[in-house]
User: Fold this.
Amino acid sequence: YQRRVRGQASLLMVLDRRRLPAGMEVAPPSASPAMERAQTVTVDARIRMELNGETPAMMAHARERKQRDSDTSMDEQWTIDPSLASRDWFVLVISAIWMPLKVIPLVPMLVMVLLSVFPAWVYGRCQRAATDRLVRTWKFWVVCCTSQVLFTPCLVAVFVNLLLDYLVYYVVGICFTACTWRWKQCYTSHRALDPYRNGPSLLLNGADIFTCVVGQSHRHGFFGTAWNVTLMCLIMPWVKYWWNANPWVYDLEERYVQQISTSMADLAQLHSNHGANKHAVEHGICDTTRRIISRSKQFGFLRKSEDLWNFAPHYPYPPDDRRWAVGMQAGGSASAALKYTLLVHTTHAISDAGGSTEQFVLSNSVHSPVYRVMLWYSNPFHFLTGWVEASISNGGISQPNKWLGGEHPMWLVTARSPFLSARDSYTGSGMIDEFFDNWLPIFVHECRRLTHMDYEMLHNGCSVEQAYKIAGEVADREYQEVVSKDGISVPDSRVGRYGYSHDRVSAQMHQAETERANPIMKTYLGVHHRIIDFDTEREAEEINQALVRVRSGGGLDDAGLQYVRKGHYDGPKFENLLPREAHDQGMRTRLQQRANKK
Assistant:
Protein backbone atom coordinates (compact mmCIF):
# COMPACT_ATOMS: atom_id res chain seq x y z
CA TYR A 1 0.00 0.00 0.00
CA GLN A 2 3.02 2.28 0.05
CA ARG A 3 3.73 1.59 -3.62
CA ARG A 4 3.34 4.52 -6.00
CA VAL A 5 1.41 4.09 -9.20
CA ARG A 6 3.68 4.16 -12.25
CA GLY A 7 2.54 5.67 -15.52
CA GLN A 8 3.20 7.79 -18.58
CA ALA A 9 2.17 11.27 -17.42
CA SER A 10 4.05 14.21 -18.93
CA LEU A 11 4.36 17.86 -18.02
CA LEU A 12 1.68 18.68 -20.56
CA MET A 13 -0.78 16.62 -18.53
CA VAL A 14 -0.38 18.87 -15.50
CA LEU A 15 -0.52 22.29 -17.15
CA ASP A 16 -3.37 24.45 -15.89
CA ARG A 17 -5.43 25.30 -18.97
CA ARG A 18 -6.73 28.49 -17.42
CA ARG A 19 -3.22 29.97 -17.58
CA LEU A 20 -2.33 28.98 -21.16
CA PRO A 21 -2.50 31.52 -24.01
CA ALA A 22 -5.44 31.27 -26.33
CA GLY A 23 -5.04 28.56 -28.94
CA MET A 24 -2.44 26.63 -26.93
CA GLU A 25 -4.75 24.33 -24.97
CA VAL A 26 -3.39 20.83 -24.53
CA ALA A 27 -5.70 17.89 -25.09
CA PRO A 28 -5.50 15.20 -22.39
CA PRO A 29 -4.28 11.72 -23.34
CA SER A 30 -6.74 8.92 -23.92
CA ALA A 31 -5.98 7.25 -20.57
CA SER A 32 -3.89 8.21 -17.54
CA PRO A 33 -1.60 5.69 -15.83
CA ALA A 34 -4.11 5.27 -13.00
CA MET A 35 -6.89 4.69 -15.53
CA GLU A 36 -4.77 2.12 -17.34
CA ARG A 37 -4.35 0.27 -14.05
CA ALA A 38 -8.10 0.30 -13.52
CA GLN A 39 -8.65 -1.10 -17.02
CA THR A 40 -6.05 -3.89 -16.72
CA VAL A 41 -7.73 -7.30 -16.52
CA THR A 42 -5.75 -9.96 -14.63
CA VAL A 43 -8.43 -12.16 -13.00
CA ASP A 44 -11.81 -13.50 -14.09
CA ALA A 45 -15.06 -11.65 -13.38
CA ARG A 46 -16.08 -13.78 -10.40
CA ILE A 47 -12.80 -13.21 -8.54
CA ARG A 48 -12.79 -9.52 -9.45
CA MET A 49 -16.25 -9.05 -7.97
CA GLU A 50 -15.18 -10.77 -4.76
CA LEU A 51 -12.08 -8.58 -4.50
CA ASN A 52 -13.98 -5.36 -5.28
CA GLY A 53 -17.13 -6.07 -3.25
CA GLU A 54 -19.38 -6.11 -6.32
CA THR A 55 -22.56 -7.93 -7.33
CA PRO A 56 -23.66 -9.02 -10.84
CA ALA A 57 -26.78 -6.82 -10.71
CA MET A 58 -24.76 -3.80 -9.68
CA MET A 59 -22.20 -4.22 -12.46
CA ALA A 60 -24.79 -4.93 -15.16
CA HIS A 61 -26.63 -1.75 -14.19
CA ALA A 62 -23.40 0.28 -14.17
CA ARG A 63 -22.35 -0.88 -17.64
CA GLU A 64 -25.79 -0.11 -19.04
CA ARG A 65 -25.73 3.33 -17.41
CA LYS A 66 -22.28 4.13 -18.78
CA GLN A 67 -23.49 3.52 -22.32
CA ARG A 68 -26.36 5.97 -21.77
CA ASP A 69 -24.35 8.77 -20.12
CA SER A 70 -22.18 10.38 -22.77
CA ASP A 71 -21.34 13.52 -20.75
CA THR A 72 -20.86 12.99 -17.02
CA SER A 73 -19.17 16.34 -16.43
CA MET A 74 -22.50 18.03 -15.63
CA ASP A 75 -25.71 17.19 -13.77
CA GLU A 76 -28.48 15.50 -15.71
CA GLN A 77 -31.64 17.54 -16.22
CA TRP A 78 -34.03 16.95 -13.35
CA THR A 79 -37.49 18.44 -12.90
CA ILE A 80 -39.01 18.77 -9.44
CA ASP A 81 -42.71 17.89 -9.19
CA PRO A 82 -44.41 20.35 -6.78
CA SER A 83 -47.52 18.14 -6.63
CA LEU A 84 -45.53 15.64 -4.56
CA ALA A 85 -45.23 18.09 -1.67
CA SER A 86 -48.24 16.45 -0.03
CA ARG A 87 -46.31 13.16 0.17
CA ASP A 88 -43.41 15.03 1.71
CA TRP A 89 -45.76 16.32 4.41
CA PHE A 90 -47.03 12.81 5.06
CA VAL A 91 -43.47 11.55 5.49
CA LEU A 92 -42.61 14.40 7.85
CA VAL A 93 -45.75 14.03 9.96
CA ILE A 94 -45.09 10.33 10.55
CA SER A 95 -41.49 11.22 11.39
CA ALA A 96 -42.61 13.87 13.88
CA ILE A 97 -44.62 11.19 15.68
CA TRP A 98 -42.01 8.43 15.62
CA MET A 99 -38.59 10.06 15.90
CA PRO A 100 -39.04 11.79 19.31
CA LEU A 101 -39.34 8.31 20.85
CA LYS A 102 -35.70 7.71 19.93
CA VAL A 103 -34.63 10.07 22.69
CA ILE A 104 -35.52 7.38 25.27
CA PRO A 105 -32.59 5.01 24.52
CA LEU A 106 -30.14 7.84 23.66
CA VAL A 107 -28.26 8.08 26.97
CA PRO A 108 -27.94 4.31 27.62
CA MET A 109 -26.71 3.73 24.08
CA LEU A 110 -24.23 6.61 24.38
CA VAL A 111 -22.75 5.05 27.54
CA MET A 112 -22.39 1.66 25.82
CA VAL A 113 -20.79 3.23 22.75
CA LEU A 114 -18.36 5.21 24.94
CA LEU A 115 -17.19 1.96 26.53
CA SER A 116 -16.57 0.33 23.15
CA VAL A 117 -14.88 3.37 21.55
CA PHE A 118 -12.43 3.81 24.43
CA PRO A 119 -10.17 0.83 23.48
CA ALA A 120 -10.05 2.06 19.88
CA TRP A 121 -9.06 5.55 21.01
CA VAL A 122 -6.33 4.21 23.31
CA TYR A 123 -5.02 1.93 20.56
CA GLY A 124 -4.84 4.92 18.22
CA ARG A 125 -2.95 6.93 20.83
CA CYS A 126 -0.30 4.20 20.83
CA GLN A 127 0.31 4.60 17.07
CA ARG A 128 2.86 7.02 15.67
CA ALA A 129 1.62 9.99 13.71
CA ALA A 130 1.63 9.43 9.95
CA THR A 131 0.50 5.80 10.31
CA ASP A 132 -0.96 4.99 6.89
CA ARG A 133 -2.74 1.78 7.83
CA LEU A 134 -3.26 -0.37 10.90
CA VAL A 135 -1.49 -3.69 10.43
CA ARG A 136 -3.76 -6.45 11.71
CA THR A 137 -1.33 -8.05 14.16
CA TRP A 138 -2.29 -10.03 17.26
CA LYS A 139 -2.31 -6.78 19.24
CA PHE A 140 -4.80 -5.33 16.79
CA TRP A 141 -7.09 -8.34 17.12
CA VAL A 142 -6.95 -8.33 20.93
CA VAL A 143 -8.03 -4.69 21.10
CA CYS A 144 -10.55 -5.13 18.27
CA CYS A 145 -12.23 -8.12 19.94
CA THR A 146 -12.30 -6.30 23.27
CA SER A 147 -14.03 -3.35 21.66
CA GLN A 148 -16.55 -5.60 19.91
CA VAL A 149 -17.38 -7.46 23.13
CA LEU A 150 -18.01 -4.13 24.86
CA PHE A 151 -20.21 -3.08 21.92
CA THR A 152 -22.36 -6.25 22.09
CA PRO A 153 -25.07 -4.81 24.42
CA CYS A 154 -25.30 -1.75 22.18
CA LEU A 155 -25.51 -4.02 19.13
CA VAL A 156 -28.63 -5.63 20.61
CA ALA A 157 -30.13 -2.16 21.08
CA VAL A 158 -29.23 -1.29 17.48
CA PHE A 159 -31.06 -4.39 16.19
CA VAL A 160 -34.14 -3.61 18.31
CA ASN A 161 -34.17 -0.03 17.02
CA LEU A 162 -33.81 -1.25 13.43
CA LEU A 163 -36.62 -3.80 13.80
CA LEU A 164 -38.96 -1.17 15.23
CA ASP A 165 -38.12 1.19 12.36
CA TYR A 166 -38.87 -1.60 9.88
CA LEU A 167 -42.17 -2.32 11.62
CA VAL A 168 -43.41 1.26 11.35
CA TYR A 169 -41.95 1.59 7.84
CA TYR A 170 -43.78 -1.45 6.46
CA VAL A 171 -47.09 -1.00 8.28
CA VAL A 172 -47.51 2.69 7.46
CA GLY A 173 -45.94 2.37 4.00
CA ILE A 174 -48.12 -0.52 2.86
CA CYS A 175 -51.21 1.24 4.19
CA PHE A 176 -50.31 4.34 2.17
CA THR A 177 -49.80 2.31 -1.00
CA ALA A 178 -53.09 0.49 -0.47
CA CYS A 179 -55.03 3.70 0.17
CA THR A 180 -53.56 5.46 -2.89
CA TRP A 181 -53.66 2.28 -5.01
CA ARG A 182 -50.16 2.81 -6.46
CA TRP A 183 -49.07 -0.83 -6.58
CA LYS A 184 -47.62 -0.54 -10.09
CA GLN A 185 -45.56 2.52 -9.18
CA CYS A 186 -44.44 0.76 -5.99
CA TYR A 187 -43.23 -2.23 -8.03
CA THR A 188 -41.29 0.07 -10.39
CA SER A 189 -39.72 1.88 -7.43
CA HIS A 190 -38.53 -1.41 -5.94
CA ARG A 191 -36.88 -2.29 -9.26
CA ALA A 192 -34.95 1.00 -9.15
CA LEU A 193 -33.41 -0.21 -5.89
CA ASP A 194 -32.51 -3.69 -7.14
CA PRO A 195 -28.93 -2.90 -8.34
CA TYR A 196 -28.03 -1.76 -4.83
CA ARG A 197 -29.33 -4.71 -2.83
CA ASN A 198 -27.27 -7.50 -1.20
CA GLY A 199 -24.07 -5.57 -0.65
CA PRO A 200 -21.22 -6.93 1.51
CA SER A 201 -22.16 -7.49 5.13
CA LEU A 202 -21.34 -4.90 7.77
CA LEU A 203 -21.86 -7.35 10.62
CA LEU A 204 -19.20 -9.73 9.27
CA ASN A 205 -16.65 -6.95 8.83
CA GLY A 206 -16.43 -5.61 12.35
CA ALA A 207 -12.64 -5.26 12.10
CA ASP A 208 -13.13 -2.74 9.27
CA ILE A 209 -15.50 -0.69 11.42
CA PHE A 210 -13.07 -0.84 14.35
CA THR A 211 -10.33 0.51 12.06
CA CYS A 212 -12.64 3.34 11.02
CA VAL A 213 -13.38 4.19 14.65
CA VAL A 214 -9.66 4.33 15.46
CA GLY A 215 -9.12 6.86 12.67
CA GLN A 216 -12.20 8.95 13.39
CA SER A 217 -11.57 9.01 17.15
CA HIS A 218 -8.33 10.89 16.51
CA ARG A 219 -9.96 13.25 14.07
CA HIS A 220 -12.98 14.02 16.26
CA GLY A 221 -11.91 12.81 19.68
CA PHE A 222 -13.13 10.09 22.00
CA PHE A 223 -16.47 11.59 23.06
CA GLY A 224 -17.17 13.21 19.69
CA THR A 225 -16.85 9.92 17.82
CA ALA A 226 -18.98 8.06 20.39
CA TRP A 227 -21.70 10.71 20.06
CA ASN A 228 -21.58 10.54 16.27
CA VAL A 229 -21.83 6.74 16.22
CA THR A 230 -24.75 6.78 18.67
CA LEU A 231 -26.79 9.17 16.52
CA MET A 232 -25.99 7.11 13.44
CA CYS A 233 -27.33 3.94 15.05
CA LEU A 234 -30.53 5.66 16.23
CA ILE A 235 -31.44 7.97 13.36
CA MET A 236 -29.92 6.84 10.07
CA PRO A 237 -32.06 3.73 9.39
CA TRP A 238 -35.25 5.82 9.58
CA VAL A 239 -33.80 8.68 7.52
CA LYS A 240 -32.70 6.22 4.85
CA TYR A 241 -35.70 3.95 4.49
CA TRP A 242 -38.59 6.26 5.37
CA TRP A 243 -37.25 9.51 3.91
CA ASN A 244 -34.84 8.91 1.05
CA ALA A 245 -35.49 5.41 -0.32
CA ASN A 246 -39.18 4.80 0.35
CA PRO A 247 -40.84 2.92 -2.56
CA TRP A 248 -44.15 2.72 -0.67
CA VAL A 249 -44.65 6.49 -0.76
CA TYR A 250 -42.44 7.83 -3.57
CA ASP A 251 -41.90 7.00 -7.25
CA LEU A 252 -38.19 6.25 -7.12
CA GLU A 253 -35.73 6.62 -9.99
CA GLU A 254 -32.02 7.25 -10.40
CA ARG A 255 -30.68 10.80 -10.59
CA TYR A 256 -27.17 11.79 -11.63
CA VAL A 257 -25.43 14.80 -10.04
CA GLN A 258 -21.81 15.85 -10.49
CA GLN A 259 -19.54 18.10 -8.45
CA ILE A 260 -16.10 19.11 -9.76
CA SER A 261 -13.76 21.38 -7.84
CA THR A 262 -11.54 24.03 -9.39
CA SER A 263 -8.23 22.88 -10.86
CA MET A 264 -5.41 21.42 -8.72
CA ALA A 265 -2.95 21.30 -11.62
CA ASP A 266 -0.43 23.37 -9.65
CA LEU A 267 -0.04 20.49 -7.17
CA ALA A 268 0.98 18.14 -9.96
CA GLN A 269 3.38 20.78 -11.30
CA LEU A 270 5.28 20.74 -8.00
CA HIS A 271 6.02 17.06 -8.63
CA SER A 272 6.63 17.31 -12.38
CA ASN A 273 10.44 17.80 -12.21
CA HIS A 274 10.24 19.69 -15.51
CA GLY A 275 8.37 16.80 -17.07
CA ALA A 276 10.78 14.06 -15.96
CA ASN A 277 8.58 12.68 -13.20
CA LYS A 278 6.00 10.43 -14.83
CA HIS A 279 3.92 10.14 -11.69
CA ALA A 280 3.17 13.84 -11.18
CA VAL A 281 -0.62 13.60 -10.96
CA GLU A 282 -0.51 10.55 -8.71
CA HIS A 283 2.11 12.04 -6.38
CA GLY A 284 0.84 15.60 -6.34
CA ILE A 285 -2.93 15.08 -6.09
CA CYS A 286 -4.00 11.44 -5.61
CA ASP A 287 -1.49 10.70 -2.86
CA THR A 288 -2.38 13.91 -1.04
CA THR A 289 -6.04 12.93 -1.21
CA ARG A 290 -5.24 9.57 0.35
CA ARG A 291 -3.15 11.21 3.06
CA ILE A 292 -6.23 13.15 4.13
CA ILE A 293 -8.88 10.45 3.72
CA SER A 294 -7.25 7.03 4.10
CA ARG A 295 -4.45 7.57 6.61
CA SER A 296 -5.30 5.97 9.96
CA LYS A 297 -3.48 8.50 12.14
CA GLN A 298 -2.51 11.89 10.79
CA PHE A 299 -0.35 14.68 12.13
CA GLY A 300 -1.97 16.89 14.74
CA PHE A 301 -2.33 20.02 12.63
CA LEU A 302 -4.35 18.09 10.05
CA ARG A 303 -6.51 16.33 12.66
CA LYS A 304 -7.38 19.72 14.14
CA SER A 305 -8.51 21.07 10.78
CA GLU A 306 -10.54 17.97 9.90
CA ASP A 307 -12.31 18.04 13.26
CA LEU A 308 -13.90 21.34 12.22
CA TRP A 309 -15.07 20.16 8.80
CA ASN A 310 -18.78 19.51 8.37
CA PHE A 311 -17.83 16.43 6.35
CA ALA A 312 -14.79 14.30 7.17
CA PRO A 313 -14.55 11.01 5.23
CA HIS A 314 -12.20 8.28 6.44
CA TYR A 315 -11.72 5.34 4.09
CA PRO A 316 -8.99 3.12 5.62
CA TYR A 317 -6.88 1.02 3.29
CA PRO A 318 -8.38 -2.48 2.89
CA PRO A 319 -6.81 -5.65 4.27
CA ASP A 320 -4.49 -7.74 2.10
CA ASP A 321 -7.15 -10.12 0.76
CA ARG A 322 -9.51 -7.62 -0.92
CA ARG A 323 -9.62 -4.23 -2.62
CA TRP A 324 -12.59 -2.84 -0.67
CA ALA A 325 -13.17 -1.97 2.96
CA VAL A 326 -15.84 -0.35 5.10
CA GLY A 327 -15.36 3.42 5.40
CA MET A 328 -16.80 5.92 7.82
CA GLN A 329 -17.95 9.46 7.07
CA ALA A 330 -18.45 12.07 9.79
CA GLY A 331 -21.07 14.71 9.06
CA GLY A 332 -22.41 17.76 10.86
CA SER A 333 -20.73 20.80 12.39
CA ALA A 334 -18.26 20.10 15.18
CA SER A 335 -19.86 22.70 17.46
CA ALA A 336 -23.42 21.40 16.93
CA ALA A 337 -25.24 18.60 18.73
CA LEU A 338 -26.68 17.18 15.50
CA LYS A 339 -23.66 15.36 14.06
CA TYR A 340 -23.27 11.76 13.09
CA THR A 341 -21.23 9.14 11.28
CA LEU A 342 -22.17 7.17 8.16
CA LEU A 343 -20.89 3.79 6.97
CA VAL A 344 -19.97 3.12 3.33
CA HIS A 345 -18.24 0.43 1.26
CA THR A 346 -15.13 1.80 -0.48
CA THR A 347 -13.09 0.25 -3.28
CA HIS A 348 -9.54 1.66 -3.51
CA ALA A 349 -8.08 2.22 -6.97
CA ILE A 350 -4.52 1.96 -5.63
CA SER A 351 -5.00 -1.53 -4.18
CA ASP A 352 -3.55 -4.55 -5.96
CA ALA A 353 -4.95 -7.20 -3.61
CA GLY A 354 -5.32 -10.60 -5.23
CA GLY A 355 -3.08 -9.50 -8.09
CA SER A 356 -5.88 -7.31 -9.50
CA THR A 357 -6.09 -3.56 -10.10
CA GLU A 358 -9.19 -3.72 -12.31
CA GLN A 359 -11.91 -1.27 -11.29
CA PHE A 360 -14.86 -0.25 -13.43
CA VAL A 361 -15.12 3.57 -13.62
CA LEU A 362 -18.63 4.77 -14.34
CA SER A 363 -17.84 8.44 -14.94
CA ASN A 364 -16.65 9.44 -18.41
CA SER A 365 -14.77 12.52 -17.17
CA VAL A 366 -12.16 10.82 -14.95
CA HIS A 367 -8.45 11.45 -15.35
CA SER A 368 -7.28 9.31 -12.40
CA PRO A 369 -9.65 7.21 -10.26
CA VAL A 370 -9.11 7.20 -6.49
CA TYR A 371 -12.19 5.70 -4.76
CA ARG A 372 -15.49 4.06 -5.54
CA VAL A 373 -17.95 4.58 -2.67
CA MET A 374 -21.00 2.30 -2.64
CA LEU A 375 -24.13 3.34 -0.75
CA TRP A 376 -25.91 0.00 -0.64
CA TYR A 377 -29.65 -0.18 -0.04
CA SER A 378 -28.86 -3.03 2.34
CA ASN A 379 -26.71 -0.67 4.44
CA PRO A 380 -29.04 1.05 6.97
CA PHE A 381 -26.31 3.37 8.24
CA HIS A 382 -26.14 5.76 5.31
CA PHE A 383 -29.13 7.88 4.37
CA LEU A 384 -28.55 7.69 0.59
CA THR A 385 -28.60 4.80 -1.90
CA GLY A 386 -26.48 4.70 -5.03
CA TRP A 387 -23.07 4.63 -6.69
CA VAL A 388 -20.49 7.35 -5.93
CA GLU A 389 -16.95 7.93 -7.18
CA ALA A 390 -14.18 10.22 -6.01
CA SER A 391 -11.56 10.87 -8.68
CA ILE A 392 -9.32 13.43 -10.33
CA SER A 393 -11.22 14.92 -13.26
CA ASN A 394 -10.19 15.77 -16.81
CA GLY A 395 -13.05 18.28 -16.96
CA GLY A 396 -14.99 16.26 -19.51
CA ILE A 397 -16.98 17.82 -22.29
CA SER A 398 -18.71 20.54 -20.30
CA GLN A 399 -16.06 21.75 -17.82
CA PRO A 400 -12.57 21.68 -19.40
CA ASN A 401 -11.58 24.68 -17.23
CA LYS A 402 -11.63 22.29 -14.22
CA TRP A 403 -8.78 20.16 -15.57
CA LEU A 404 -7.32 18.08 -12.69
CA GLY A 405 -9.98 19.19 -10.26
CA GLY A 406 -11.50 16.77 -7.80
CA GLU A 407 -14.74 15.25 -9.09
CA HIS A 408 -17.50 13.55 -7.10
CA PRO A 409 -20.14 12.04 -9.42
CA MET A 410 -23.18 10.49 -7.73
CA TRP A 411 -25.88 8.20 -9.12
CA LEU A 412 -28.58 8.31 -6.44
CA VAL A 413 -31.96 6.59 -6.15
CA THR A 414 -34.42 9.32 -5.22
CA ALA A 415 -37.77 10.92 -6.08
CA ARG A 416 -38.79 14.18 -7.75
CA SER A 417 -40.48 15.65 -4.69
CA PRO A 418 -39.29 19.03 -3.32
CA PHE A 419 -38.15 17.38 -0.09
CA LEU A 420 -35.81 14.96 -1.88
CA SER A 421 -34.72 17.06 -4.87
CA ALA A 422 -34.57 20.74 -3.87
CA ARG A 423 -31.15 22.23 -3.20
CA ASP A 424 -32.41 24.09 -0.12
CA SER A 425 -33.82 20.95 1.52
CA TYR A 426 -32.04 19.20 4.41
CA THR A 427 -31.89 15.79 2.76
CA GLY A 428 -31.95 14.23 -0.70
CA SER A 429 -30.04 14.47 -3.96
CA GLY A 430 -30.40 18.22 -4.47
CA MET A 431 -29.13 19.03 -1.00
CA ILE A 432 -26.13 16.73 -1.33
CA ASP A 433 -25.23 18.24 -4.72
CA GLU A 434 -25.06 21.73 -3.24
CA PHE A 435 -23.33 20.47 -0.12
CA PHE A 436 -20.37 19.04 -2.02
CA ASP A 437 -20.13 22.13 -4.22
CA ASN A 438 -19.56 24.05 -0.98
CA TRP A 439 -17.31 21.45 0.69
CA LEU A 440 -14.88 20.69 -2.13
CA PRO A 441 -13.15 24.13 -1.91
CA ILE A 442 -12.31 23.32 1.74
CA PHE A 443 -10.83 19.98 0.71
CA VAL A 444 -8.83 21.51 -2.17
CA HIS A 445 -7.49 24.17 0.21
CA GLU A 446 -6.16 21.43 2.52
CA CYS A 447 -4.66 19.44 -0.37
CA ARG A 448 -2.83 22.54 -1.57
CA ARG A 449 -1.51 23.32 1.89
CA LEU A 450 -0.18 19.78 2.45
CA THR A 451 1.58 19.58 -0.91
CA HIS A 452 3.23 22.98 -0.49
CA MET A 453 4.34 22.01 3.03
CA ASP A 454 6.26 19.12 1.48
CA TYR A 455 7.86 21.48 -1.00
CA GLU A 456 8.85 24.14 1.55
CA MET A 457 10.42 21.67 3.99
CA LEU A 458 12.26 19.43 1.57
CA HIS A 459 13.12 21.93 -1.17
CA ASN A 460 13.45 25.29 0.60
CA GLY A 461 14.73 24.01 3.96
CA CYS A 462 11.89 25.35 6.13
CA SER A 463 10.95 24.03 9.54
CA VAL A 464 7.50 22.56 10.16
CA GLU A 465 6.23 25.84 11.61
CA GLN A 466 7.62 27.93 8.77
CA ALA A 467 6.34 25.56 6.09
CA TYR A 468 2.87 25.44 7.66
CA LYS A 469 2.64 29.23 7.55
CA ILE A 470 3.98 29.62 4.00
CA ALA A 471 1.87 26.76 2.63
CA GLY A 472 -1.22 28.21 4.30
CA GLU A 473 -0.58 31.54 2.60
CA VAL A 474 -0.26 29.82 -0.77
CA ALA A 475 -3.48 27.86 -0.21
CA ASP A 476 -5.28 31.06 0.83
CA ARG A 477 -4.00 32.90 -2.24
CA GLU A 478 -5.16 30.17 -4.66
CA TYR A 479 -8.50 29.52 -2.92
CA GLN A 480 -11.53 29.53 -5.21
CA GLU A 481 -15.15 28.50 -4.80
CA VAL A 482 -17.82 27.65 -7.38
CA VAL A 483 -21.26 29.13 -8.00
CA SER A 484 -23.41 26.20 -6.90
CA LYS A 485 -26.40 25.41 -9.09
CA ASP A 486 -28.01 22.60 -11.07
CA GLY A 487 -26.28 21.64 -14.30
CA ILE A 488 -22.80 23.19 -14.16
CA SER A 489 -21.39 24.95 -11.09
CA VAL A 490 -19.00 27.42 -12.71
CA PRO A 491 -15.86 28.68 -10.92
CA ASP A 492 -16.30 31.88 -8.94
CA SER A 493 -14.51 34.85 -10.50
CA ARG A 494 -12.88 35.67 -7.16
CA VAL A 495 -9.55 33.96 -6.42
CA GLY A 496 -8.11 34.14 -2.91
CA ARG A 497 -9.79 33.81 0.48
CA TYR A 498 -9.61 37.52 1.12
CA GLY A 499 -11.81 38.19 -1.88
CA TYR A 500 -14.75 36.53 -0.10
CA SER A 501 -16.64 38.11 2.75
CA HIS A 502 -17.65 34.67 4.07
CA ASP A 503 -15.43 31.97 2.59
CA ARG A 504 -16.13 28.31 3.39
CA VAL A 505 -12.82 27.69 5.17
CA SER A 506 -13.36 30.57 7.61
CA ALA A 507 -16.91 29.42 8.27
CA GLN A 508 -15.58 26.01 9.34
CA MET A 509 -12.61 27.25 11.33
CA HIS A 510 -14.59 29.78 13.39
CA GLN A 511 -17.85 27.87 13.86
CA ALA A 512 -17.35 27.54 17.63
CA GLU A 513 -17.39 31.34 17.92
CA THR A 514 -20.94 31.69 16.60
CA GLU A 515 -23.99 32.11 18.80
CA ARG A 516 -25.48 28.88 17.44
CA ALA A 517 -22.65 26.77 18.87
CA ASN A 518 -23.81 24.21 21.42
CA PRO A 519 -22.20 25.04 24.82
CA ILE A 520 -21.41 21.41 25.65
CA MET A 521 -19.91 20.67 22.24
CA LYS A 522 -18.03 23.97 22.30
CA THR A 523 -16.41 23.04 25.62
CA TYR A 524 -15.57 19.57 24.39
CA LEU A 525 -14.09 21.05 21.22
CA GLY A 526 -11.72 23.18 23.29
CA VAL A 527 -10.54 20.20 25.36
CA HIS A 528 -10.03 18.01 22.29
CA HIS A 529 -8.04 20.70 20.49
CA ARG A 530 -5.77 21.23 23.49
CA ILE A 531 -4.89 17.52 23.34
CA ILE A 532 -4.19 17.84 19.61
CA ASP A 533 -2.01 20.95 20.19
CA PHE A 534 0.09 18.95 22.66
CA ASP A 535 0.54 16.18 20.09
CA THR A 536 1.39 18.69 17.36
CA GLU A 537 4.25 20.21 19.36
CA ARG A 538 5.78 16.79 20.00
CA GLU A 539 5.37 15.71 16.37
CA ALA A 540 6.86 18.94 15.01
CA GLU A 541 9.97 18.44 17.15
CA GLU A 542 10.45 14.91 15.77
CA ILE A 543 10.02 16.08 12.18
CA ASN A 544 12.47 18.98 12.57
CA GLN A 545 15.09 16.65 14.08
CA ALA A 546 14.66 14.24 11.16
CA LEU A 547 15.01 17.11 8.68
CA VAL A 548 18.29 18.17 10.30
CA ARG A 549 19.65 14.62 10.06
CA VAL A 550 18.78 14.31 6.37
CA ARG A 551 20.19 17.73 5.44
CA SER A 552 23.42 16.97 7.28
CA GLY A 553 23.91 13.77 5.29
CA GLY A 554 22.40 11.45 7.83
CA GLY A 555 20.85 9.32 5.12
CA LEU A 556 17.34 8.03 4.74
CA ASP A 557 15.08 7.74 7.78
CA ASP A 558 12.36 5.67 6.18
CA ALA A 559 11.93 3.07 3.47
CA GLY A 560 9.72 5.41 1.48
CA LEU A 561 11.98 8.51 1.54
CA GLN A 562 13.31 9.45 -1.87
CA TYR A 563 16.56 11.22 -2.58
CA VAL A 564 16.14 15.03 -2.48
CA ARG A 565 18.09 16.72 -5.25
CA LYS A 566 18.83 20.42 -5.53
CA GLY A 567 17.07 22.54 -8.10
CA HIS A 568 13.76 20.71 -8.21
CA TYR A 569 11.35 18.70 -6.14
CA ASP A 570 10.48 15.18 -7.27
CA GLY A 571 7.97 14.05 -4.71
CA PRO A 572 9.11 12.97 -1.21
CA LYS A 573 6.64 13.52 1.64
CA PHE A 574 7.84 15.09 4.85
CA GLU A 575 6.08 12.47 7.00
CA ASN A 576 8.34 9.84 5.45
CA LEU A 577 11.19 11.35 7.45
CA LEU A 578 9.84 9.72 10.60
CA PRO A 579 11.03 6.21 11.49
CA ARG A 580 8.53 3.37 11.44
CA GLU A 581 8.53 0.33 13.67
CA ALA A 582 7.95 -2.03 10.77
CA HIS A 583 9.47 -1.61 7.30
CA ASP A 584 10.94 -3.63 4.49
CA GLN A 585 14.67 -3.76 5.16
CA GLY A 586 15.39 -4.88 1.62
CA MET A 587 13.53 -1.91 0.16
CA ARG A 588 15.33 0.42 2.56
CA THR A 589 18.72 -0.91 1.42
CA ARG A 590 17.85 -0.58 -2.28
CA LEU A 591 16.65 3.00 -1.80
CA GLN A 592 19.82 3.88 0.12
CA GLN A 593 22.01 2.42 -2.64
CA ARG A 594 20.01 4.31 -5.27
CA ALA A 595 20.42 7.57 -3.35
CA ASN A 596 24.19 7.04 -2.95
CA LYS A 597 24.51 6.31 -6.66
CA LYS A 598 22.74 9.58 -7.53
In short: The first strand starts at residue 253 and ends at 257. The radius of gyration is 24 Å.
